[in-house]
Amino acid sequence: MQKAQAKLRTDGYDPALVQGLDAPLSPPKPEQPAIPIPPPDTSAEDVKKWWDSLSQQQKDQLITQHPPELGNLNGIDAAVRDMVNQAVMNDDLNRVLDVAKGHGVSPEEVVRSPALYGLSATDITRYQNAVRTRDGLKYDRGPDPKNPRPVMLWAYDPLAFKGQGKAAIAIGNPDWARNTAVIVPGTGSSVAQGWLVGHDDAINLYDQSLAADPDHRYTSVMAWMGYDAPDGFTDIRVSQPWLARQGGDLLAGDVNALAVTHNGLAPEHITVIGHSYGATTVADAFAHSGMRANDAVLLGCPGTDLAHSAADFHLGGGHVYVGSASSDPISWIGNSDGVPREMLKDYLREHHIPVPAAAGLGFDPAGSGFGSIRFHAEVPGHGSLNEHDHSHYYVRGSEALRSITDVASGHPDRLATDGMLAEGRRQPHIGPLRIPGIPAFIDPEANRPPDTIHDDHAYRTDESPR
C-alpha cells in the first residue's frame, strides 16, 4: 500500500492518469491586455494614426483575435482588413459546420432546426451570408488556382441592414492601385440575395482594365455592397430617395478612406460607378455626403436626386460620365413628367415591372443640359424599350463596358478617339427655341442604325485572370 501511495503525485493524482494534463499544477497564463478599438464613427485619418501607433506585437494580437469591428474600420490597411474579415467569415462558417459534423448531420439540417443543435437564428444568418461571401470570393478569384485574380474581403458584416448583409470584395489591393474603381449596384441587390456571386461586373471591368492599360498592373475594382438597396421593383422604397441618401453617406465614408491608406507612391485615380438605384446613391454621395473621387460613372440612372447638374458632384477636374441605353426604360424615369412618364410607367407595368406611382428620382444625367459626358451604351438589336437592356452595361465587348473601362483605367480621352461619345437627350424645339417645361425625351441614340451597334468592343486579352 505504501509503495502504491509513493507513486502518487503530491496533489494526490496518479501520474499515469494525468499525463500531459498538468493544468491543475500549472499557473494560468496571464491574459493579454485588451487593446481598445476606436468606435466606428472615428475618422479614417484618426484610425490610421491609432493603428500606426501600435507595436507590431499589438497589431498581431488584434489580427489573431480578429474582432469583427476591426475589419470594417476605415483607416486600417486593406491587407489587414482582408485577414480579419476572412477570419470572421470563417468563424461564421465553422460555427455551423462544426456542429453539423459533431452531430453527424448536414449543415442544411442545422440551418433548418438551429435550436435543436444549440444555435440561434443570428448564427444561421451569419452562416448563410458567410457562405454567399465565401462563394463571391471564389467566383471573383476565378477557376484557375494557378492563376487567380487577387481578391480581398475589404468589408464584411453579415448582420448589417437587418440581415441583408454588408460586404465589399476588391479584386486587386486598393492601397497599391494606381486606378481604383468602386462599383455600386442597384435595386434587388444584397449579400443575402446573392449579388456577390454570378455577377461579372467587377470581373469584366478588372480584366478589361488590365488589357486597356498593360503598363500599369496595379488596378483594383471593388464590388461594394455596403448599403441597403431596395429589395426589388415591388419595394415602395425604389421610388423614394431615402435609401440612396443613407447609402450615399456610407459610400462616401468608405471611398474617402481609400486615399487615407493608399501608399502614395503614385497618383491614385478613383472612379465611382453606380448602376440603376446605385447611380442615384452615387450622385447623392457626391452632392450631399462629400464623397471625394476623380470621376463618376452613372449607368441606367433613374434620377440624380440631390444633384441637379454635373456641377453638384464637385469633381474639380473630373467629370460625370453617363451610360444610358435608349432602350433601357429605367434610364428614362429621371426628370420625366406628364404624358412621357405615364406612357413609360404603362410600358413597365405591361412587362411585369410594377413601378410605383411616384417613380422618378430627380434629373436625368443623360440630358444634354446636365453637364455630363455621355458615351455610347446601346444594345445590339435595339429598338423599343426592353427591360433586359437595363442589365447590359457590364457585358464584355459592349459599348458601355468599353467606355467604362476607358474612364476607370485613366484614359477618358479614348472616348473621343474611339468614337464612343454620344449626344445627350434633348427637349423638343420650335425652331431654335426649346419648349419650356417639356422633358428631354428625344434621344439621338435611338436613331442609330442597328448595323452600327455591336458587342465587339472588348480590349484584346488572353481571357485569363491576372
Offer a few descriptive terms:
466 residues, alpha/beta, Rossmann fold, eight-stranded mixed β-sheet, two-stranded antiparallel sheet, 13 helices, 33% helix, globular
Question: Care to describe what's here?
Answer:
InterPro entries: AB_hydrolase_fold, DUF1023. This is DUF1023 domain-containing protein. This protein is 33% helix and 10% strand. It has helices at 2-6, 44-53, 56-65, 78-103, 107-112, 121-141, 160-163, 201-212, 242-261, 277-287, 338-350, 399-408, 414-417; strands at residues 151-157, 166-171, 179-184, 219-225, 269-275, 295-299, 320-323, 373-374, 429-430, 433-434. It is of the alpha/beta class. The strands form 2 sheets. An 8-stranded mixed sheet has the order 1-2-4-3-5-6-7-8. Strands 9-10 form a two-stranded antiparallel sheet.
Short description:
The chain is of the alpha/beta class.
- Return the string of H and E elements: HHHHHHEHEEHEHEHEEHEHHEE
Q: Which architecture of the domain at 146-452 does the CATH hierarchy give at level 2?
A: 3-Layer(aba) Sandwich
Strand arrangement within the widest β-sheet reads 1-2-4-3-5-6-7-8
The amount of beta strand, in percent, is 5-15%
